[in-house]
Design brief:
Blueprint: H1 12-37, H2 45-71, H3 78-100, H4 103-131, H5 138-166, H6 176-201, H7 210-232, H8 235-261, H9 271-297, H10 307-333, H11 341-364, H12 372-395
Helix pairs in contact: 1-2, 1-3, 1-12, 2-3, 2-10, 3-4, 4-5, 5-6, 5-7, 6-7, 6-8, 6-9, 6-10, 7-8, 8-9, 9-10, 10-11, 10-12, 11-12
The structure holds protoporphyrin IX containing FE (2 copies).
Amino acid sequence: MLPDLATLRVNTGVTRAFQWSFAIFTLTVLIGLANASKIFGVLSRDTILTHVHSGTLGFITMAAFGLALWVFGGGASATSQRNVMISALATAAYILAFWSGNLPARAAFGAIELAVIVGWWWWIYTQVRAAGFSRLDIPRLSVFLAFTVLVVGSSLGVAMQVILATGTVVPTGIDVIGGHAVAQVSGYLVLMSVGIGEWRLRADRGARSRSGLTQTYLLFGGGLSAAVGVLLGIVPLLLVVNLFYVIAAAIFVVRSRTGVMRAAWGAAGGGRHFAIAVPFLVLNVALLTYLISKFAAAQGDPSAIPLGLIVGYDHTTFVGVLANVIFGSALTVSAADRRWPWADHAIFWLLNVGVLAFVGVLVIAGYESDLVRFTAPIMGIGALLGIATLSMRLSSTAAATPAAAPMRA
Ligand code: HEM
Ligand code: HEM
């Protein structure tokens, strides 16, 4: 029997996972700022990949471990707190391996990171099996399926590391990196954020329903099919997948509309962060549609897609959707500590105005635009302020803070 989503309590395992997530996110933001300002010139590919994976694995996935503990009622035992620490150390080691540029180290630490991810998947699976798969509510079903896609996407990532480390030649027409990136960004991350959105934005906290199930399975099937479509360059499959995303996003907008419309945009706390993630998800699906149309028009040639469009699409997911969901969650977890009350507003507006401007510049003016230099720092300062404020508040969060009800977070 899983704990009731209305009365869930957070504990040390959850707060620790968020603290690690924010500590590693500092590196992501600093590299992002260096990349935008070019104070160290043009960054190496190794440094860019460190930016990417400190963001996706360090920031987002460490927080996802905390969110999984939270929604499945774990994190209180010494074992789970130790597992959080082992996960953080393995993640940090893998990120450093990317920075080193050493291909065998990337392959070895990538395999360890995959083992950590499979361990988390297994723990979630045991909770799901004990509760009964057919009885899961939408948030917990989404988190379970999100981790399932994460295992698939990360396996492709490790396969790529081994290919690179051994100098194996990939047959033409097969895009392992593309398949990996799409499974993670369009599968794992979308399911994860929609699952948490269901919990925080709906009055029934995402109770099991036909529309919720349709939305979840469209995103799950869509994420996996998109990965296969890009891996093997099957353009018609991507067009069908696009339709899945549009329908799933429309269902989610309808399901979360009351929570979004009732959001107190001027009030501190987590509520508005969850609410604004919904329009960012819509923007994300719109950009995905545009991206797939370009890919299809070029008969599956990825080089025909403007880089600015890809990087813009990426940051709507990473920052517009995920950073809002994670900051909203951390604000909810640390709700008992309201130090630096002014910071809540600065974080919310800088992060969101910043990411919107950054994405707008990338999509409209392109990857090489000079304006990136001015827009990235707005988002970066919002993120750094969020890291400082939330790390401080989380460190003083009592061992058992009740999770506030939706919309009062
Ligand atoms: C979870 C967080 C983040 C992730 C996963 C992420 C990921 C990425 C990815 C995949 C790229 C494309 C790399 C390439 O050129 O191949 C990129 C580029 C970039 N990112 Fe991030 N990013 C994140 C947050 C940020 C933040 C907070 C900033 C702000 C300081 C930022 C600033 C940049 C800049 C300036 C570029 C290069 C854009 C250009 O030169 O046009 N990123 N990032
Ligand atoms: C064990 C986990 C992971 C492994 C082994 C892994 C491995 C890799 C590898 C080998 C590459 C290509 C590097 C290169 O071009 O030399 C890559 C790129 C990429 N990965 Fe991962 N990754 C992992 C997790 C993730 C996650 C969780 C995400 C997103 C949520 C992600 C998103 C990406 C993206 C967007 C790129 C393309 C970056 C670019 O070309 O700018 N990865 N990853």
